[in-house]
Amino acid sequence: MNTPDIGIDLGTANIVMTYGKKGVVLSEPSVIAYNTCTQRILAVGKEAYQMIGKTPAYIDVVHPLSEGVISDDLLTQCMIREFLMKVCGGQLIKPRIIICVPAFITELEKRAVGDAVMSAGCRKAYLIDEPIAAMLGAGINIGKARGHMVVDIGGGTTDVAIVSMNGIVTSHSVKSAGNQIDRAIMKYMQDRYKLLIGEQTAEQIKIGLTNLYDPRDDVTMTVKGRSIMRGLPDQVEINEMELFDAMEDEIFAIMEAIKKVLEETPPELVGDIHDNGILLTGGGSLLGGLRELIRRTLNVNCILAKDAVHCVAKGTGLAFQKINHLLDGFEGVTVYKYR
Ligand SMILES: Nc1ncnc2c1ncn2[C@@H]1O[C@H](COP(=O)(O)OP(=O)(O)OP(=O)(O)O)[C@@H](O)[C@H]1O
Ligand SMILES: [Mg+2]
């Protein structure tokens, strides 16, 4: 059967899909909206994301994945199925699927991911570790006996790994990533200015104002929300320095995770990392000044992957070409066959 293969990066914040030789064809928030009375799916992706915080009681808008793992099996299955339908133009053609999973998920969680894609109608599903997919997506040859390091900062988790000869040598994962940073900003605004802001506003501040390398107090942004004291709309100015303070603990945790992996890696491989630099992928790797901060703090060069948000998904698409190596060389690959 000659149906195109589909690669999926099933992320906490975004789901990205590749389709055969076309490359990335879908990139949408991992969100689903449904009617709680009739259990009918109302929207997925961008459309559902726009409904967050604006729906009546009978509509629920949820992120069925949290911190990189599946928190609601059924809704995840529905969401994947809806997206697969979009990508396949309405008809499910039993594709082969490679789907990427975070490095630290348990066997049970892996099975839940496998079951989700199988129940969504695929013929065969392969699971691949996120750091491996990230490296493939960035075009790095990981088959050799040389160490390469990747730091993938997503919405739910930051995954740090050192890869050599198609396998993960050392890795560590922390929950300090995009969503936690947004929550830290919300908390800061509440504590310092008694201003309530939503998640989307916090994300906009993070994307628009972050400067982790040399934050200044004369670069500012206006933030709108609701005053806790008066219960009415209000707005305040915050500057780069304040935002740095708000995010500092989360950024520190990310730096510590990178340091931990470097400390636990055999010295020969650490030498390779010094030569090759650290590959940064995921949406969080776009944080202003992050590369410079890592370079200054850890004395290792950083390379931001081209198209950092889609890099992992591109890797899942490219992994089909390496499927034989995947099956006998790669670690942590599970094959689910259509029954
Ligand atoms: N320019 C930017 N600057 C800072 N953060 C950004 C930027 N663009 C996107 N992000 C953040 O990146 C995160 C999403 O990244 P990504 O799509 O890689 O996550 P994910 O793969 O869905 O999550 P995970 O891998 O943890 O399951 C969000 O928290 C988003 O706010
Ligand atoms: Mg991801």
What report would you give on this structure?
The protein is of the alpha+beta class and 339 residues long. It has 11 helices and 19 strands. The radius of gyration is 21 Å and the shape is flat. The site of magnesium ion (MG) has 7 residues, from loops.
Summed up:
The chain is an alpha+beta fold and 339 residues long. It has eleven helices and 19 strands.
Itemize the secondary structure elements and their pairings.
Elements: E1 6-10, E2 14-19, E3 24-29, E4 32-35, E5 41-44, H1 45-49, E6 59-62, E7 65-66, E8 69-70, H2 73-87, E9 96-101, H3 107-119, E10 124-129, H4 130-137, E11 148-153, E12 158-164, E13 167-174, H5 178-193, E14 195-196, H6 199-209, E15 220-227, E16 233-239, H7 240-264, H8 267-276, E17 278-281, H9 290-298, E18 302-304, H10 311-319, H11 323-328, E19 334-337
Parallel strand pairs: 1-9, 9-10, 11-17, 17-18
Antiparallel strand pairs: 1-2, 2-3, 4-5, 4-6, 7-8, 10-19, 11-12, 12-13, 14-15, 15-16
The structure holds adenosine-5'-triphosphate (ATP) and magnesium ion.
Magnesium ion (MG) binds next to loops.
